[in-house]
Design a protein that fits this description.
The protein is α+β, with helices and mostly antiparallel strands. Helix content is 18%, strand content 43%. The protein has a four-stranded antiparallel beta sheet. A three-stranded antiparallel beta sheet has the order 3-4-5, with helices on one face.
Length: 131
Protein backbone atom coordinates (compact mmCIF):
# COMPACT_ATOMS: atom_id res chain seq x y z
CA UNK A 1 0.00 0.00 0.00
CA UNK A 2 1.45 3.40 -0.97
CA UNK A 3 2.38 5.95 1.69
CA UNK A 4 1.00 9.45 1.28
CA UNK A 5 1.89 11.93 4.00
CA UNK A 6 2.04 15.65 4.74
CA UNK A 7 3.90 17.72 7.29
CA UNK A 8 2.29 20.76 8.82
CA UNK A 9 5.28 22.87 9.82
CA UNK A 10 4.58 26.51 10.61
CA UNK A 11 6.62 29.27 9.00
CA UNK A 12 8.71 30.94 11.72
CA UNK A 13 8.08 34.61 12.46
CA UNK A 14 10.07 36.84 10.13
CA UNK A 15 10.45 34.14 7.46
CA UNK A 16 8.69 33.57 4.15
CA UNK A 17 8.69 30.99 1.38
CA UNK A 18 11.52 31.46 -1.14
CA UNK A 19 10.86 28.23 -3.08
CA UNK A 20 7.54 26.37 -2.96
CA UNK A 21 6.99 22.60 -2.97
CA UNK A 22 9.86 21.31 -5.06
CA UNK A 23 10.81 17.64 -5.32
CA UNK A 24 14.31 16.85 -4.18
CA UNK A 25 16.73 15.57 -6.80
CA UNK A 26 18.39 12.18 -6.60
CA UNK A 27 16.28 10.69 -3.83
CA UNK A 28 15.97 7.44 -5.82
CA UNK A 29 19.78 7.06 -5.56
CA UNK A 30 19.64 7.49 -1.79
CA UNK A 31 16.67 5.19 -1.02
CA UNK A 32 18.58 3.12 1.54
CA UNK A 33 19.73 6.27 3.34
CA UNK A 34 16.22 7.68 3.25
CA UNK A 35 14.63 4.60 4.82
CA UNK A 36 17.38 4.35 7.49
CA UNK A 37 16.96 7.99 8.46
CA UNK A 38 13.16 8.07 8.59
CA UNK A 39 12.30 4.56 9.79
CA UNK A 40 11.51 5.57 13.38
CA UNK A 41 9.92 8.97 12.73
CA UNK A 42 10.81 12.32 14.31
CA UNK A 43 13.05 13.15 11.37
CA UNK A 44 14.62 16.57 10.79
CA UNK A 45 16.00 17.89 7.52
CA UNK A 46 18.75 20.36 6.75
CA UNK A 47 20.81 21.58 3.81
CA UNK A 48 24.58 21.37 3.45
CA UNK A 49 26.61 22.87 0.61
CA UNK A 50 28.90 20.54 -1.32
CA UNK A 51 31.49 22.83 -2.97
CA UNK A 52 33.63 19.82 -3.91
CA UNK A 53 30.80 18.08 -5.78
CA UNK A 54 32.25 17.03 -9.14
CA UNK A 55 28.90 17.37 -10.94
CA UNK A 56 27.89 20.80 -9.63
CA UNK A 57 30.00 23.30 -7.63
CA UNK A 58 26.74 24.84 -6.32
CA UNK A 59 25.38 21.48 -5.11
CA UNK A 60 23.40 21.48 -1.89
CA UNK A 61 22.77 18.13 -0.19
CA UNK A 62 19.61 17.46 1.80
CA UNK A 63 20.34 15.54 4.98
CA UNK A 64 17.79 13.71 7.13
CA UNK A 65 18.54 13.05 10.78
CA UNK A 66 16.87 11.50 13.77
CA UNK A 67 17.80 10.62 17.32
CA UNK A 68 19.05 7.13 17.91
CA UNK A 69 20.22 5.20 20.94
CA UNK A 70 23.83 6.23 20.21
CA UNK A 71 23.23 9.88 19.29
CA UNK A 72 22.01 11.16 15.94
CA UNK A 73 21.75 9.26 12.68
CA UNK A 74 22.23 11.57 9.70
CA UNK A 75 22.04 10.49 6.06
CA UNK A 76 22.11 12.27 2.70
CA UNK A 77 18.74 11.73 1.03
CA UNK A 78 19.09 13.88 -2.09
CA UNK A 79 19.92 17.35 -3.39
CA UNK A 80 18.28 20.70 -3.93
CA UNK A 81 17.54 20.88 -7.68
CA UNK A 82 20.45 22.45 -9.59
CA UNK A 83 18.57 25.55 -10.76
CA UNK A 84 17.50 26.39 -7.19
CA UNK A 85 20.99 25.66 -5.80
CA UNK A 86 22.48 27.99 -8.42
CA UNK A 87 20.11 30.80 -7.44
CA UNK A 88 20.92 30.29 -3.75
CA UNK A 89 24.65 30.47 -4.52
CA UNK A 90 24.29 33.57 -6.72
CA UNK A 91 22.20 35.37 -4.07
CA UNK A 92 24.70 34.38 -1.34
CA UNK A 93 21.92 33.55 1.14
CA UNK A 94 22.44 29.80 1.66
CA UNK A 95 23.43 30.04 5.31
CA UNK A 96 20.18 31.88 6.11
CA UNK A 97 17.75 29.41 4.51
CA UNK A 98 15.91 26.48 6.08
CA UNK A 99 14.00 23.52 4.71
CA UNK A 100 10.34 22.97 5.46
CA UNK A 101 9.15 19.43 4.65
CA UNK A 102 5.78 19.37 2.89
CA UNK A 103 4.81 16.05 1.28
CA UNK A 104 5.98 12.48 1.07
CA UNK A 105 4.78 9.83 -1.34
CA UNK A 106 6.18 6.28 -1.48
CA UNK A 107 4.73 3.96 -4.11
CA UNK A 108 4.31 0.20 -3.78
CA UNK A 109 7.42 -0.31 -5.90
CA UNK A 110 9.55 2.01 -3.72
CA UNK A 111 9.42 5.23 -5.77
CA UNK A 112 9.88 8.19 -3.42
CA UNK A 113 8.69 11.76 -3.98
CA UNK A 114 9.71 14.10 -1.19
CA UNK A 115 8.71 17.76 -1.45
CA UNK A 116 10.01 20.77 0.46
CA UNK A 117 9.67 24.52 0.71
CA UNK A 118 12.74 26.65 1.27
CA UNK A 119 12.20 29.43 3.80
CA UNK A 120 14.30 32.51 4.36
CA UNK A 121 14.24 35.81 6.24
CA UNK A 122 11.71 38.24 4.75
CA UNK A 123 14.33 40.98 4.40
CA UNK A 124 16.45 38.77 2.07
CA UNK A 125 13.66 37.83 -0.32
CA UNK A 126 14.29 40.67 -2.77
CA UNK A 127 18.02 39.86 -2.83
CA UNK A 128 17.13 36.23 -3.59
CA UNK A 129 14.35 36.83 -6.11
CA UNK A 130 16.19 39.39 -8.23
CA UNK A 131 19.20 37.18 -9.01
Amino acid sequence: MPVNGRWKVEIPAGYRIFEREFSIAGVQHYKDNFFKAVKKGNVEFRMQTEPGNRHDPNAIAILASRKSFFGRVEKKVGHVPAEIASQIADAKVGDKLVLRPKKLYISDDGFIDLKFDILGPEQLFEQYSTV
